[in-house]
């Protein structure tokens, strides 16, 4: 009876049952920001044998770390914070997780209902805080005792984990009020609930996925000169094979976005990666214009490609809830597994395009490979050669996190393909400047050794993430070219006060800043220096791969890009 | 006609009309984070003669800066950012602004409606993003031409500014979609709209505020032994005078929260500031227990006070929408101006408490002042002496920003009163660890020279704000005691892995970190060192007052506090 009256113990058991359910659903990690109200969750994490806790001070950084961790590990990751403005800091990463369909479990501690709305300290309305950016929201109320209550909160954990990984993966928010005391008395036995494990939701194996009837109509549209365009997305090995076969049967090229996961690793010659450059030549753009487009995944990075695709009859295959159709050209949207669709098309004996069609694409790609090599051999060192060297050096099956704005566009332009697999990661859901170093740390913690390529503004936007680079085995490559150089390529370039209001360079000694966290810092200014620093950093990466600061002249880069595009267009 | 077809010019004129309305409503500053979509707003800010632009890279830091700026300047402050996750970073500061009733105008640029929900880059649903944390939300759609349209958007600006400063002040969110092109063609004349200025909303002068009939009932409850308790809030000079007179007529003490604005500046002897210590002695707490409580403003900081107030008949006066009553003891809530209520009570010839009542309070306060002096003279140097020296040194009418967790509680305990006015600022709406250095920079930019008192975790939670300390004339005093020491005073202290999961010290070389931004850094370890550093920093503050890092032994501080409270209790 005394034990029954220990409210701290009740809180702990309740939190432990919740974590049991989450662990049944595949969760193994909780990223915890310090606070008092969240104590039952943290103590439950300490008691739970399957769960590991990672403390991170800044909730914003914690959330981006969790995002990277979930992406690399393929498991849902939990976030824990205290009440008040603390969960508000999760917002940017939750937005990205929602758009990129990453399973995050948001566990915000809260004051109990009797304190909400009555001016109590550190209390505000946390319910539905993430609104449309979460797949589900629950507020199960304060901890209760007894088997029925514990079964409920455990089932809610399992359900949250399942929903976060369901047909439309993404974040789930549980707001969890706790009454004081938050710490149990001595003698509280936080034993786990002796009920059978929650059943996992049943997943249909890829090969058994039924083909919707609508796909049978699709085949009739895919005859003649077409293209397959793969935007950011995930392809299993099986699905990738089906894609290549499907394209071969149709006699069409596959245009692979850098974030499609298809550019790097073994692939056929009808895999096309140079379209952003190819299509800058109006004559080529006209010659290669298709009659139809079969699109997979989200919208590609290349604006050149997007503009060129506008007004073409488009067929979109998306396994989730996405409607990625900004130009409103989609004539049929098929919500099912891309691999299943590819297999079905390949097996349906389609009528292929004339053989000249694919040959023209392959020749264009090969020619462009050669002219890029020639151009880069004679032009000054810039991002183009850096990216070529980086892709030549990164070990197979490792990761590369590519920031938004310039880096992802430059990868798009200059990467080409490579035979050795590489996981290219990018927070492309909201395409923010935010959370990059924290995401990098999370990816590495998630089991994929990952190098990053960032610009100076992205790096400085996520200063809290800098502390997380302590102990990393892979480097963060930081292109320091004095601010947001993407604006140099936009009409804002040259407006009055352009530097102060758009490019916004930050006045900081980067080396000293980085070293203040005990992180190694190397500066490079040329190709040899970069190759050496990269090799060294990967070799002695054991826990302090650090930052490679690449000093580049942004104006020179711009001239090199512009000159290259002018040549292509001419 | 060619001009009409310049969509970039249309965007600029639209944005300029909006700023005209905001400027009519009192807005003078826009804090701008870099981005492309927000270009029309930034260009309009450049054109507008009454508006000053401040660029800040990190939107989270920008929002806390704006919060400080609005608080110190007494004007609404605008925030501008690009689309995507950018406005999500405003969330924590918006939560604070909502709870602290600070007028922020949130101007989020957006993609036009035809791109929303179609997978376009950097596009997500920004509408109602801040939900219950803003007083109003509007999405006026893309820019339109013509006088009627420009009148509308200008009126919307004036309205947003008025609502943000209305009966229930706080943030207002305008989501502003812009179609490309975002930059006007050469020759666009962004002249301002030739219509009369928007009328400002009419404010009733304090002396004319009618007294609600309910107050007439109040007087009958306020006889005998009572106390007046003033939580965080704002008191005009007139209202303060009325408060002192009212208390004198009633023969009761006024317990002044550090954030009430009443502790510092001239005041009568019935102004009480030592209640948090006084009430730790059970005998005193019993002797001084009142029959009724008249409360003004938000909930006080002191938990000792709050616990002691529980179950007492309470009468709450709040000019705004607050219901600050976490113990649910309020018997009457009067929504009107506190000064008006005080004046009415004083003039209503109330029956005062017996003279022994107030004398007991004054004697208790005076005795405690003396015993604190004696105790501090013999105890090792810690926050107590630092706070005494700080308050003795800060020039009259300047500001002190006090962080949450320990600093505000230590000010509460140790400040006492002072005759020279001082603006004590604290982000006490959500009581977060967040945004402190950015708020400090904003307060200074808002015209009140302000020093800060922060702990190491608060400092490190807002690393982006560090860049904003460049150019400050007043120092940031950073108590470095190895993590979140508030947990040392809570039941979590001593739990397994306490240091890693609750106190969470950060492994960083603070001096090197601070200096990497070109900011002066001084370390002090004793009273003499602190006094010297503070005097120097205030004297040569011209643009680089920098950071004073105070190294304190947290365990020693805890012992000194505990020992003091033990003595008081017994």
Architecture overview:
Chains A, B: Pathway: Quinol/quinone metabolism; menaquinone biosynthesis; Quinol/quinone metabolism; 1,4-dihydroxy-2-naphthoate biosynthesis; 1,4-dihydroxy-2-naphthoate from chorismate: step 2/7. Chains A, B: It comes from Thiorhodococcus drewsii AZ1. Chains A, B: One of its GO terms (biological process) is menaquinone biosynthetic process. Chains A, B: Its EC number is 2.2.1.9. Chains A, B: One of its GO terms (molecular function) is thiamine pyrophosphate binding. Chain A has 570 residues and is an alpha/beta fold. Chain A folds into three domains: 7-177, Rossmann fold (3-Layer(aba) Sandwich); 212-364, TPP-binding domain (Rossmann fold, 3-Layer(aba) Sandwich), CATH 3.40.50; 380-569, Rossmann fold (3-Layer(aba) Sandwich). Chain A is built from 21 helices and 18 strands. Chain A has helices at 7-24, 39-47, 59-73, 91-100, 147-164, 213-221, 237-250, 275-278, 282-287, 303-309, 338-347, 355-378, 383-393, 406-414, 436-445, 456-461, 463-466, 498-503, 510-515, 527-539, 554-569, and strands at residues 29-32, 52-55, 77-81, 104-110, 136-138, 172-177, 226-230, 254-256, 271-272, 292-296, 314-317, 330-334, 399-402, 423-425, 450-455, 476-480, 521-524, 547-551. A six-stranded parallel sheet of chain A has the order 2-1-3-4-6-5, with helices on both faces. In chain A, strands 9-8-7-10-11-12 form a six-stranded parallel sheet. In chain A, strand 13 (399-402), helix 14 and strand 14 form a beta-alpha-beta unit. In chain A, helix 1 (7-24) crosses helix 2. The longest helix of chain A has 24 residues, at 355-378. The radius of gyration of chain A is 26 Å and the shape is globular. Chains A and B meet through helix 2, helix 4, helix 16, helix 17 and helix 18 of A and helix 2, helix 4, helix 16, helix 17 and helix 18 of B.
């Amino acid at each position: 009876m005394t034990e029954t009256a220990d409210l701290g113990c009740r809180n702990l058991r309740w939190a432990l049952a919740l974590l049991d359910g989450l662990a049944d659903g595949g969760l193994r990690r909780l990223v915890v920001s310090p606070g008092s109200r969240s104590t039952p969750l943290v103590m439950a994490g300490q008691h739970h044998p399957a769960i590991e806790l990672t403390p991170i001070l800044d909730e914003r950084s914690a959330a981006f770390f969790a995002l990277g961790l979930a992406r690399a590990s393929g498991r849902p990751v939990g976030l824990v914070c205290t009440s008040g403005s603390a969960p508000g800091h999760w917002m940017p990463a939750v937005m990205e997780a929602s758009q990129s369909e990453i399973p995050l479990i948001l566990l915000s501690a809260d004051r109990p209902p009797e304190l909400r709305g009555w001016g109590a300290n550190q209390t505000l309305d946390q319910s539905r805080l993430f609104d449309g950016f979460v797949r589900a929201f629950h507020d199960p109320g304060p901890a209760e005792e007894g088997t029925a209550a514990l079964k409920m909160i455990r089932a809610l954990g399992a359900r949250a984990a399942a929903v976060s990984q369901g047909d439309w993966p993404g974040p789930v928010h549980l707001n969890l009020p706790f009454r004081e005391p938050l710490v149990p008395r001595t003698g509280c036995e936080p034993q786990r609930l002796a009920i059978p494990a929650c059943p996992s939701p049943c997943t249909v194996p890829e090969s058994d996925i039924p083909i919707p009837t609508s796909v049978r109509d699709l085949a009739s549209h895919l005859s003649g000169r077409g293209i397959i365009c793969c935007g950011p997305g995930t392809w299993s090995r099986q699905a990738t094979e089906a894609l290549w076969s499907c394209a071969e049967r149709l006699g069409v090229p596959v245009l692979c976005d850098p974030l499609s996961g298809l550019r790097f690793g073994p692939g056929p010659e009808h895999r096309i990666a140079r379209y952003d450059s190819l299509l800058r030549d109006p004559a080529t753009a006209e010659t290669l214009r298709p009659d139809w487009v079969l699109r997979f995944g989200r919208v590609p990075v290349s604006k050149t490609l997007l503009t060129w695709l506008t007004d073409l009859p488009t067929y979109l295959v998306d396994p989730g809830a996405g409607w990625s159709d900004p130009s409103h050209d989609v004539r049929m949207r098929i919500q099912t597994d891309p691999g299943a669709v590819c297999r079905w098309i390949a097996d349906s004996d389609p009528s292929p395009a004339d053989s000249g069609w694919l040959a023209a694409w392959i020749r264009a790609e090969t020619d462009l490979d050669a002219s890029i090599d020639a151009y880069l051999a004679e032009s000054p060192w810039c991002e183009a050669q850096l990216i070529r060297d980086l892709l030549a050096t990164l070990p197979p099956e490792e990761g590369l996190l590519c920031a938004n704005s310039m880096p992802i566009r430059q990868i798009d332009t200059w990467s080409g393909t490579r035979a050795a697999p590489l996981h290219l990661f990018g927070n492309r859901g909201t395409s923010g400047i935010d959370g990059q170093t924290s995401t990098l740390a999370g990816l590495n913690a998630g089991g994929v050794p990952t190098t990053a390529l960032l610009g100076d503004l992205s790096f400085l936007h996520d200063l809290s993430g800098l502390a997380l680079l302590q102990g990393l085995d892979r480097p963060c490559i930081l292109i320091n070219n004095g601010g947001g150089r993407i604006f140099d390529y936009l009409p804002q370039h040259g407006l009055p006060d352009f530097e102060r209001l758009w490019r916004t360079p930050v006045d900081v000694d980067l080396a000293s800043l980085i070293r203040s966290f005990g992180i190694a810092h190397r500066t490079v200014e040329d190709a040899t220096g970069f190759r050496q620093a990269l090799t060294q950093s990967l070799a002695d990466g054991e826990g302090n791969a650090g930052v490679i600061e690449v000093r580049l002249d942004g104006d020179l880069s711009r001239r090199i890009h512009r000159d290259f595009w002018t040549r292509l267009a001419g």
